[in-house]
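Something for you to look into today, if you have time. I want to see for myself how the chain folds. Leave the record below and I will have a look.
***
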Amino acid sequence: MELKNIFKASAIVTALTLAGCGGDINITPTVNDTSVNNSNNTTTTNNEGNNNGGGVEPDVNPCASYDADGATVQGEFTGGNCEYSKDFVSPASPLASDIELVKLDNGGVHYFKSSLVVGENCNTSDSCTLIVDGPTVEIEAGATLAFDDASSRVQINRGANIEAVGTYSNPITFTSANAIASLKVSDAQPQDWGGIMIDGFGITDQCSDAERDAVTCNAESEGAVTYYGGSDNTDNSGTLKFVKIHYAGGLPAGAEEGNDLNSLSLFAVGSGTTIDYIDIYAGYDDGIELFGGAVNLKHIVVTDTQDDSIDIDAGWKGNAQFILVKHGSVVNAAGNTVHMGNGGFESDGTKVKDNNVAPSAPQIANVTVLTTDEISVRDGKSSVAIKLDDFISATWYNTLLVKTTATQSYCFENSSDAEQVVVDGDVSMMNSVAACAVLGKSETVGSTTFTNWLTDNADANNTVLGGDADVLAANGFATIADLKVPYDVTTIDAGFFESVDFIGAVSPTDTSSDWYDWAKDAYDNAIANEQ
């Protein structure tokens, strides 16, 4: 084990002992575990006042630690960074204790050489016991976590929690080790690491009512096998707020193409979880993928991810507001220009039919999707604003879709499974503008057309414009003033939706808010790295 002597003076011993008091956590391991970490006491350290720059070791090791079998297991502080080997945490040896990752001085990072796995990965069919109140990883505002392998990830198992609460001026960053100067071995790229996975107890159509009632709902995740699902759409898995996730979404070794990790995977995550102010950049697969549950999303920017920016599936019932998506082109490590972005939204109603779970039916407001006329390097498919599939039953409000030119792409496409929901109006747009050089891959959708779907119902109050329409402010991402009267989304859910006087993701006039600055920073970062 990675054991460090942190008891350098009696005063330090006393301080750490007091900080380490905590309650017991008893978890029955799964049959997949190759090692058992049954420690229950947490020791945290304070980084304040440490001089860990210029090669000088701090008085107290600032790296996260916990107690196991009477010994302290702690990350190694070296070169200004905290390094955590697979002996500290890995999929085979998940954390069973609370830990805290503090902001390190002088740009130091928490560098994980395996995955940060919190709580047991429990498949109840293997006679393990689900722990509802499991361990928590708490990440201090301003902290940076780095990973260096396509299989390495942050994995929050059912019952465990993540509390990553940053601020605009001190965001929390999850990124590639290659984006950190002291760790860099090559240029940072999509698929440098695996992203964040959160497994919840929410409702997914991948389980039947009988499985939910018997507590045998064990839906298997994509990318890396974890288990999720249950019957509680109000489940709380913690908080991600003011969080950046860059260069993520790996294809683990041995995994088949298509069985990928996303930048942020939300597996049956409940509405008690907070996902707010997220910046996802240069992901390999999807930006955010939702597999059922009812978690809400707010203040989300996804730029230059290779596949879909927001992927809805398996009966997701949450709300979303303020979503900015931008597709673009970047130069890869080989010096080639590659195009990033397939669907702005991949909108699937069902993954498994006939499990008594209604299709995905989110309410989504204040969206801007900026597409290109290129073909994504990820799968050879067009940059599309919205894809409709599998009986989706979503509504987009106050949305702006932009496609300035279209020789090989379009704003909408649909599968045959989505034709009838378009015809019947089960999927819809309200008070929205489609400024698209070409509206749909095929203008005809069943017995209607995309133009008729958007404009026949006067109450929907949608507008269809050409790709040369003046709809964006000079900054390239905010909506021009007075483009469209917005829908009052507070009438849908006043507890979540905010009243707005604009359509699209970002107001052209509110230029001093955290949301404006967050969106601008993410947009400018993408533009600076594009060709």
About this structure: The helical segments are 10-19, 209-213, 419-424, 450-455, 514-528. The mean pLDDT is 90. Residues 514-528 form the longest helix (15 residues).
